[in-house]
Amino acid sequence: MAHDVAALAMELTDMAAADHQSAVHANSDDPTEQLAWRRLTARHGDRLGEIMDKYGWPTAELVGEEAARAAWLIAQHADRQLDVQRRALQLMQQAVAAGSASPRELAFLRDRTLVNEGRKQVYGTQIAGVKDGAPVPWPCEEPERMDALRAEVGIEPFGEYVAKFSLA
């Protein structure tokens, strides 16, 4: 079992590294690059589904901090596999309730899943586009409470968050 878990941790971190390398192609003007990104994220989403079947949510206790974060990233990018995202969200909610996963990462995954379902997000983590040089979030359920909700899960205020992306 220990060998399986070590191999799983390595597999997850390798998948995240491939994701980081390929992510620049997600919004490429070249359809071939976009397709390569979609294939990669679909393959990773399928594999995460298999991992969740066997192990549940891959927590830091199980696979280590880096691999647990990798699992979250894979779920986050499984945009065309809502079943995988919803399942990851459910398992991650249980892990957060048990104190074994990050509420901050859960908030990002919750928003991403809601936006992918065509619903309003909660925390304002998902950016729809840029208007007048400033990032604009997808619609939020309670925009007036967004920063308070963000603070509850350890996310910086929206203004600070988008300042990182602003075109200076």
How is this fold's topology laid out?
Elements: H1 2-22, H2 31-55, H3 60-63, H4 65-76, H5 82-97, H6 103-116, E1 127-131, E2 134-137, H7 146-152, H8 158-163
Antiparallel strand pairs: 1-2
Helix pairs in contact: 1-2, 1-4, 2-5, 4-6, 5-6
Shape: globular
Strand content: 5-15%
Helix content: 55-70%
Number of helices: 8
Protein structure class: mainly alpha
* Biggest sheet record: 2 strands, antiparallel
Radius of gyration: 16 Å
How are helices and strands ordered from N to C? HHHHHHEEHH
| Contiguous uncertain segments of 5+ residues | none
Q: Strand sequence of the main sheet, in spatial order?
A: 1-2
Number of strands: 2
The mean pLDDT is 93
- Roughly how many Å apart are the termini? 50 Å
Write up what this structure looks like.
The protein has helices at 2-22, 31-55, 60-63, 65-76, 82-97, 103-116, 146-152, 158-163; strands at residues 127-131, 134-137. The protein is mostly helical and 168 residues long. It has a two-stranded antiparallel sheet with strand order 1-2. Helix 1 (2-22) runs antiparallel to helix 2 (31-55), helix 2 crosses helix 5 (82-97) and helix 5 packs antiparallel against helix 6 (103-116). The model has no long low-confidence stretch (mean pLDDT 93). It holds the Pfam family DUF6624.
What are the defining features of this structure?
single chain, 168 residues, mainly alpha, two-stranded antiparallel sheet, 2 strands, 62% helix
Question: How would you summarize what this structure contains?
Answer:
The chain is mainly alpha-helical.
